[in-house]
Structure formats: structure tokens, C-alpha cells
Design a protein that fits this description.
About 5% of the residues lie in helices and about 65% in strands. Strands 1, 2, 3, 4, 5, 6, 7, 8, 9, 10, 11, 12 and 13 form a 13-stranded antiparallel beta sheet that branches. The chain is elongated and about 65 Å long. The chain is built from two helices and 13 strands, in the order αββββαβββββββββ. The longest helix has 4 residues.
Amino acid sequence: MIKHIIGCLAGGLLYAGSGFGAEQVATPASDIRHASEWEFSVTPYLWAPALSGKVSHRGLPVIDVDTSFDQIFDNLDFAAMLTGDARKGRYSLFGDLIYAKVGAQGDTPRGVVATSADVHSKTFTGLLGAGYSVLDQSPHSLDVVAGLRIWSVDTDITLKGARLNGRKSSDGATWVDAVVGVRGGYVFTPKLYATGWGLVGAGGANADWDVGIGIGYNISKSFSATVGYRALGVDYSAGGFKFDAVLHGPMAGLTIRF
């Protein structure tokens, strides 16, 4: 089971909802699109990611890890996130911070030097970007966005079985990627809305992507709650360190607008 889950996250995604772990705020178009003042929100949320993909260190075989949905909470050790968004008229600035410590079990190819492995990953990502709304005078939202994401990943691998049984290795890397994409939401009723996002990019990594979808409910003018699912992936390989992986799992948040 989960050893520790601390999901106290501050910051938020204003109105646009965004693909950074927050939710869509359904407010009248006339109050949003040509606002003369900056608008802000704060969104504490919890994202419970599992780890799937391929990891390796110099001199070690590639480890295939795949965490099933029912193992997400068993392998999550710690998660903390912070998002923030500010909007004025059609323009927005946003940031997203994620720290996740997860474990997984993996297999080695052919099982010659080792048959399996325990993998523990500590992942930090920080995203800073800007957006522009392509919709005007609409209760719905659609923003085109661009930004930079920094990654810092450390993995610990313990091999099991065969000739390398018990061998342990730790390695890590830090890099920056540029990303572009869209984020937005659809208002069903004054209370109920959907939000979603998609980002793709590259730079230090061969590929970097982030997608998610959520359903939200406006509790009042100042508060709304959202549940959804997010997947954040990256393909990085340099100097013998490989992290070609996806962090994916359910999320839930509470937005406070001011």
C-alpha cells in the first residue's frame, strides 16, 4: 500500500484548466475574454502516477517496467505538485511543478545476466509557459500554448537472479525540453464542465508529451472540484542513462479562484 501520500499542492490553473493537473473554470465569457484585470486561481490536487517503460544505466541491461492500474497505489511512495496560472483577456502565463517518487518491478531481455529488477524513480519536472485563447465571447475555452519543461530524474536499480543478482546501481540526469500544444474545456452546464490538454515537444529528450482529461463541478463562484486521468511521458537517453517512460494515473483537485 502507499507508504506516504502527501498531496498538498498549491498554485493553480486559472480559467483555462490546462493540461497541467488543474481544471476548467466555467465562467461567463464576458467576464473572461476582455477582462482588464489579471485573474488567478489556486488548485491543490493529488496525482497518483505509476511508472511504465524502459530504464537503464551504463553497463546494465535495459529494464522493462510495466505497472498495472491496480498496482498504482502499491507502488506510489510520495507525490507533490504545484501549479499556477494567471490570465488577462486572451493571454495567460502558467507554471507546473511535479515531484513523484514511485517504484516498479521489471524484467530484463532474455534474462541472461539478470531475470528481473526492482526500480525506484524520483522524478521532478518544472514547466513554464504562455498561452493565447483562440475563442472569443464563448463559455468554452481553447488555448494554444508553448513553454519550456525541465526534467530531473534519478533511478535506483536492483537486479535479481542470474549472474548479476543483488547488483545495485544509481544514476540520473537533468535536461530541458521545449513543448507546444493546446488546452481547453467544454461547459455542459453552469455547474458541469470537461477539461483536457495535450502537449508535445523535444530538446534534451527525443520526445516529451503530456495529455489528460477531467470532469469538473463548480461548487460555487470561488470553488470547483475536478477528477481525471493524466499521462506524462518522456524518451531520454544519454551517457548510458536511459529513461523512456510514462508516468500515468488518476488525479483529483480543488480549485480556489480569486
